[in-house]
Amino acid sequence: MIHVVLCDDHAVLRRGIRDTLLDDPDIEVTAEAGGYSELREALRHAPCDVLLLDINMPGRNGLEVLASLRETHPGIRVLIVSMYPEDQYALRCLKAGAHGYANKAGDPTHLAAAVHTLAQGRKYLTPEVAQLLANSLAEPTPEMPHETLSERELQTLVKIASGKRLSDIAEELMLSPKTVSVYRARVLEKLQLTNNAELTVYAIRNQLV
């Protein structure tokens, strides 16, 4: 039996995904969550082999949750399920540690196949994502400065650009303010910027916020 946890802030979409997965006798949905705090609580009690995670949630987004899960639950296989087209986030999610990426607009019956693929220790790639990956390998594009950032550094950049204080960022990421200050300093150095205002302008120009 494959134990699956669903994390999506839209209850109707969660119900649709759950109903689709429950048609497969080898899949059991052990818990559902509408955000990161609920997910943390669910993972304390519910067995989870595969997590279906929405990338766009209030508070912490899917990439931030993914970074935290890699530290706290490295054994869980994560399938990002998103409404965004593959060319916007798929490769970023895979680089951040996701084991697969599926579009909510796709055939829902493919989700069960994706769950089985991840449970077998393999990555799930739709034909669209596979093509993007092939293109990125065949024709590498010049790397943007922010693409050199670690996931934590990128999170810090985005949150500062969103107007959050370092103390608030530290609380959200469950880090010490000193650690967040270190991340901020690294971001400034890597992007060759000097202050938060320049960070904000950079993030807006590169559509990070």
From TrEMBL:
Residue ranges of every copy of the HTH luxR-type domain listed in the record: 142-207
Modified residues (4-aspartylphosphate): D54
Top-level taxon in the UniProt lineage: Bacteria
Originating species: Paenacidovorax caeni
Family matches, as PROSITE patterns: HTH_LUXR_2, RESPONSE_REGULATORY
All copies of domain Response regulatory, residue ranges: 3-119
Keyword DNA-binding: yes
Stored CDD domains: LuxR_C_like (cd06170), REC_NarL-like (cd17535)
One Pfam family cited in the UniProt record for this chain: Response_reg
GO biological process: phosphorelay signal transduction system; regulation of DNA-templated transcription
Protein name as catalogued: DNA-binding response regulator, NarL/FixJ family, contains REC and HTH domains
UniProt KW keywords: DNA-binding, Phosphoprotein
PANTHER family named in the record: TWO-COMPONENT RESPONSE REGULATOR (PTHR43214:SF43)
Gene Ontology molecular functions: DNA binding
InterPro entries: CheY-like_superfamily (IPR011006), NreC/VraR/RcsB-like_REC (IPR058245), Sig_transdc_resp-reg_C-effctor (IPR016032), Sig_transdc_resp-reg_receiver (IPR001789), Tscrpt_reg_LuxR_C (IPR000792), WalR-like (IPR039420)
UniProt key word DNA-binding: yes
SMART domains named in the record: HTH_LUXR, REC
